[in-house]
Design a protein that fits this description.
The structure is a homodimer of 438-residue chains. With 438 residues, chain A is an alpha+beta fold. The first copy, chain A, folds into 3 domains: 47 residues, Up-down Bundle (Transferase, Pyrimidine Nucleoside Phosphorylase, Chain A, domain 3); 254 residues, Pyrimidine Nucleoside Phosphorylase, Chain A, domain 2, CATH 3.40.1030.10; 87 residues, Pyrimidine nucleoside phosphorylase-like, C-terminal domain (Aldehyde Oxidoreductase, domain 3). Helices cover 44% and strands 16% of the residues of chain A. Chain A has a 5-stranded mixed beta sheet with strand order 1-4-5-13-14, sandwiched between helices. A 4-stranded antiparallel beta sheet of chain A has the order 6-9-11-7. The longest helix of chain A has 17 residues. The radius of gyration of chain A is 22 Å and the shape is globular. The N and C termini of chain A lie far apart (54 Å). In chain A, 57% of the residues are buried. At the A-B interface, helix 1, helix 3 and helix 8 of A face helix 1, helix 3 and helix 8 of B.
Chain lengths: 438, 438
């Protein structure tokens, strides 16, 4: 079938045949399909959607466009978590060693920060020596030795996703649920995990602004995962304000260490535990194991081992004063008395990019040292002149970032209830209000 | 506005701002906009449409992307006809001199044949010396001298249409009413005509297969023309079977001469008169003038002058035996007794391409000599072994073409009424069943 006929098929609302999709991706990677045909197809998919077998076929063919991992010969459940991205969302860092300490195997392929959201790789690399660029053999060695492999995308993992994403980005075809779901699931399932929990963020700082949109994405990913023979469920979680108190790469490693030491902000700790509990339950294990392994220090010890196994400086996490530190720490003072009624995560994320903690475009470098420590969050009462936050900076962008951070705070004279952390659990059986497993 | 933002606007169903469209076309012609962005925009337009001021803006900016003509300083009404394309549709050839003989001025820019439909330029060029490649000065001189200028598209007339069409052709975005209407109207209105009649073909051999589709296209073009300050109306006409009896370039010139001599097939003669009557009425003139100038021989004389003024061989039209003639003329014999119930114009057109009368791709050359003379058309009673048609050929493709032509005939044992020629008249006030003006 010619590419133009395939576009016409989708334009007219028909399903794309899997064999044609395979040929299309093969030709696209070989440079034999014009970008202008792919972009027209993507826009037709935006309008017509993809579902059922068609979406499974599209996603599996994406996955099979490159290398895939199979760790079924390793003992233990292979599990992973994927977050759709938010501000201050460092949960992968404490969660992966916690899961490892529970006896699960965690092959986790992560990305870098872009726009207002941070990236797990950038955070990990603020630990001196931490190497996220591993060979397939290196990845397997990590799983054998410490049960956790934290690596970056490589050009050979789902290569068609990279090309499709670049095209979607410049053709206004990013916000398509089947395209988002296939991008997430092709990469997550290429890494060889058998069970996956999705943390689908909802709110101002998230890609999905409404719970309905988030639920639809979750359901699409879950059906897709099941169609590909994997067990997937999702939690819909709050991302109107940042998660935790630290925003910035080394700062988020500090918060990770606090959580692993049994302290840290309640929301980061809770979300880490709740996601671990979901995966334990999916594996048929006792979900209370998560809290036990966190409180016993086993997860912290595993984190040290994970850092060392990836070539990172173990001393830098054993003694966080050795982590990169910004040369300046300036308070952001409350301009009034009152209750914080909102703390716009999108603005906080943008302000962090201005400081150098994130990337406006993919080729930017990040400064691991800079970021924010948020003292006041939604529901907190503050008196004028007290610190709302601390800005850890290296002069670059300081005034602009501080002003944007201040503008992210909204105020009320009346008490404001703190927001919920987890809204819903979505499984293959449907969506329901979140209820704890233990 | 960035191109991606413009795509997003249309994707979300908003109108494209005219100033942005102007900038887009300018950048596209300068090679500064990627084809993959344009094709995504075209697909978004396919789904979301364009209407009202937006479509007027899009079309005027297309038109103004290149040279436009203004003949308002010449005396007389400037008029033109556009056909959406069919098989055996040679009406422009007798119509243009007839309009000239009625005192109207006819700046007509035509195209070449592609696929199953013939092109006015190819037909005219079967007259030795006829030059359709004229400068702007040459075009105006023709209008001054003989009231009729028959020229071809040049790269400087609506250049953006050529690029857009090439992209639409390979991205399944051809069948979009606003894109078709803007392509037609930008070119037709660039030529400086004030009043335009559209012959919108309906049926098997036409781009529009149903009367509803044809009416929608007509209404879109009419509203667009009015939005651009021009007077436009349309007739919806039959294109299930070919128009007239001749299909092929020099053969269609022969039929033209028959019509101009007061003879020729009834349908070609009638459609020529009816279209002329519409334009005369639009100019506030007496529509009976058309028949008078045809029957008086004034239109024929004007045709001779038009041919000569374009550098063509006047003797070749005064004595049609001087027109190019195929070396072979073979009868296609009726395989049975019966009534012709259908004569599939699409198949006839394809068969003519096989003979060499048309083009499969734009770079093909055409053979002016070859084609068909259709003896039997829908409603005719034929006895087995009588000629259905004559195939004028130069050996190339003869057997395949004859077989395809035969397959275009469908049969009935019962009498079949001849089809209507004109279905509806569409004006800015709406559509109504066609009723003659005189």
């Amino acid at each position: 079938m010619r590419v133009v006929d395939l576009i016409e098929l989708k334009r007219d609302g028909k399903a794309l045949p899997r064999a044609e999709v395979r040929g299309l991706f093969r030709a696209f990677l070989a440079g034999e399909v014009e970008d202008y045909q792919l972009s027209a197809l993507l826009m037709a998919i935006f309008f017509r959607g993809m579902e059922g077998e068609e979406l499974v076929g599209w996603t599996e063919e994406m996955m099979r466009s490159g290398d895939t991992f199979d760790f079924s010969h390793l003992p233990g459940h292979k599990v992973d978590k994927h977050s759709t991205g938010g501000v201050g969302d460092k949960v992968s860092l404490p969660l992966a060693p916690l899961l490892g300490a529970c006896g699960l195997v965690v092959p986790m392929i992560s990305g870098r920060g872009l726009g207002h959201t941070g990236g797990t790789l950038d955070k990990l690399e603020s630990v001196a020596g931490f190497n996220t660029q591993q060979s397939a053999e290196g990845f397997e060695r990590l799983l054998r030795e410490v049960g956790v492999g934290l690596i970056g995308q490589t050009p050979s993992i789902v290569p068609v996703d990279r090309k499709l994403y670049a095209l979607r980005d410049v053709t206004a075809t990013v916000p398509s649920v089947p395209l988002i779901a296939s991008s997430i699931m092709s990469k997550k399932l290429a890494e060889g995990s058998e069970r996956l929990v999705l943390d689908v963020k909802v709110g101002r700082g998230a890609f999905m602004r409404t719970r309905d949109d988030a639920r639809l994405l979750a359901q699409t990913c879950i059906r897709l995962g099941h169609g590909m023979g994997r067990d997937v469920r999702a939690l819909l979680t709050q991302m109107d304000q940042p998660l935790g108190v630290m925003v910035g790469n080394a700062l988020e490693v500090r918060e990770t260490l606090d959580v692993l030491r049994g302290a840290g902000p309640a929301d980061t700790r809770a979300l880490t535990l709740r996601l671990a509990e979901e995966l334990l339950a999916m594996c048929g294990l006792d979900p209370t194991l998560a809290r036990e392994r966190l409180d016993s220090g086993a997860a912290l010890a595993r984190f040290y081992d994970v850092v060392a196994a990836h070539g990172g400086d173990r001393r830098a996490v054993e003694d966080p004063r050795r982590l990169p530190t910004a040369p300046h720490r300036a308070p952001l003072l409350a301009p009034r008395d009152g209750y914080v009624s909102a703390l716009d995560a999108l603005k906080v994320g943008h302000a962090a990019v201005v400081l150098g903690a994130g990337r406006a475009v993919a080729s930017d470098a990040v400064d691991p040292r800079v970021g924010f420590e948020l003292v006041a969050k939604v529901g907190d009462r503050v008196a004028r002149g007290e610190p709302l936050a601390w800005v850890e900076h290296a002069e670059r962008g300081y005034e602009e970032a501080a002003a944007e951070l201040l503008s992210a705070y909204e105020w009320s004279d009346e008490p404001v209830p703190p927001p919920a952390l987890i809204y819903e659990r979505v499984t293959v059986d449907g969506a329901a209000p979140y209820a704890p497993l233990c």
